[in-house]
Each structure stands twice: as C-alpha cells, then as structure tokens.
Amino acid sequence: MSAALPAVHLIDGSLYVFRAWHSMPNEFTDVDGHPVNAVHGFTRFLCELLERVKPPHVAVAFDASLTTSFRNAIYPAYKANRELPPPDLEHQFVLCREVAEALGIVVMIDHSYEADDLIGSSLWSLRGHGFRSVIVSADKDFGQLLGEHDEQWDYARGLRWGPAGVHEKLGVHPHQVADYLALCGDAVDNIPGVPGIGAKTAAALLTHFGTLDALLERIEEIPFLRIRGAASCAQKLREHGQSALLYRRLTRIALDAPVSNHADAWLRLNGDGARMDALCERLRFGPLTRQRLRALIQS
C-alpha cells in the first residue's frame, strides 16, 4: 500500500549543513577566501540524494528561528543552551539555500516556525492529498509525525523506519512522542522535563496511562505501579505536572506553519543553470561536482 502512494521527501536541511560543517576540512574557500566547507559537504549530500532517489516532490527546510521561534515566547529558556552559529557558518547557510534553489528544490524557512514545524505542516498538508512522506533526518522528534505510510530516513547511517521503529527506539508510539519528551526532557533543546523521570520511566508511564493528560488525572494510581521509585515519581508529577504540560507545548511539532495547501508546491522545479554556474564559480566547486550539478539540472 505504501509503495503505491506518491512520496514527498522532506529534508531537515540544517542538520545536514551542521554535519557537513563538522565533518568537512577547512581547506574549502570561495573566491573571496571565505570558508565554504559546509556548502561543499551539503552540496555533495544533495547531489547523492537526488541521484539516488530522483524525487519528483522534494523540499528542504532550514532553521532561521533559534531565538525568534514561537516557543521562545512560551519558554524563554528554550534552546538557550545553544550558541548562535558563527558568522562564517551563517553565511554558508545562505549559500546552501541558494544551491538547493538552483537545483529546483523547494526551500522552506520561517522566523517564527522551526524546520521541524515546516516539515510537519508539509507532511500534514500532503497527507490530505494522498501522499506519504519520507523525512530525511536523524532527529528523534520527527517520530511523532509518522503515520501508517510515512517513514524517517537517517541518510548518513542508511537507516529507515516507520511508526513501529519509533516504538522500538523510544518505547512509545508516535502519538506519544511529544508527551514522552515533555516528561523525560530534551537536553538538546534545553527542555528539562520532570525531575527524576528518565526515558524508561516516561515510556513505562505512557504505556500504562496512554497520554500525559491521563497520567496527571490519575496520579494517585502511580505509587501502585511496578516501576522503580513509583511513590517518588508520583510526588514529582504532583509538583511538576503543570511544567510538563508547558514542556509539551515545546516538544509538539506544529502542524499549522505557513505552508501551501496545494500538492504542486512541493514539486521539484527545473534547475537554474545560469545561477548554478555562477555559484560553481563563486564556491570554487571542482569539475566532478560541477558535472553532477549540471546533470541534475538537465535531468
């Protein structure tokens, strides 16, 4: 059934730019001597994915809201543990977007919504048009989006999984992921979670109660569960239950970000050869990369 549905590939662009920045040597510079190692690595990743999959519907989402996301208004400490990208990397993000656009890939970016939200809203919109989604990312947060026919693809590790894989990894089902992260926290995003509740306890609680709301409504039952430190867990939830509900507003991916309602909005367009040639000169791409890019634009 899944194979019969048209697929859209939704790429977590910022993740792969950061990976390229950390993994590529600093020897790559543009015509002005500025570092462009992340652009070279990200371009190679895009070339490989497009050559391998040839997706007719594809988009790449970037973050531009590290301090301006709607989540920062809800919880000012959200992602406060992250340093802003240095100017050299910020400049490379712009160039990565330009490369993607020149290849005809739809680029999504917003100052109030994160890349996760743009991907989630796109998936939600396209599901209504009969599409299945392939989320290209290693980020565990995306597990909450996976419906029956969707899958997540950790491209670097060559791993793919659907809804059942979320349960194998986290011990909860997709619809429980936001509750799970609200309970045990997410250090990457500076979400503390409920003190004393780790990943295994969060999964066990949600397996028994189903949702965070049901868990908080039935706190008096927790001491009788066969989980380690059940009585202490109940007390922590009495003290921090409202905080957990707040954290869920942060961990839940938004499905109402400003994306199109038309499936054609995610179609890969014809590439822009002239723009790509100019980028190749500016970024000092080698002959093999230029050849691959020209072939992808012409295909």
TrEMBL record:
CDD domains in alphabetical order: H3TH_53EXO (cd09898), PIN_53EXO (cd09859)
Domain 5'-3' exonuclease residue range list: 4-268
Highest taxon of source: Bacteria
Keywords for the protein's UniProt record, in alphabetical order: DNA-binding, Hydrolase, Nuclease
Pfam families, sorted: 5_3_exonuc, 5_3_exonuc_N
InterPro entries from the UniProt entry: 5-3_exonucl_a-hlix_arch_N, 5-3_exonuclease, 5-3_exonuclease_C_sf, DNA_polI_H3TH, FEN, HhH2, PIN-like_dom_sf
Protein name per its UniProtKB record: Exodeoxyribonuclease IX
Native source species: Dyella koreensis
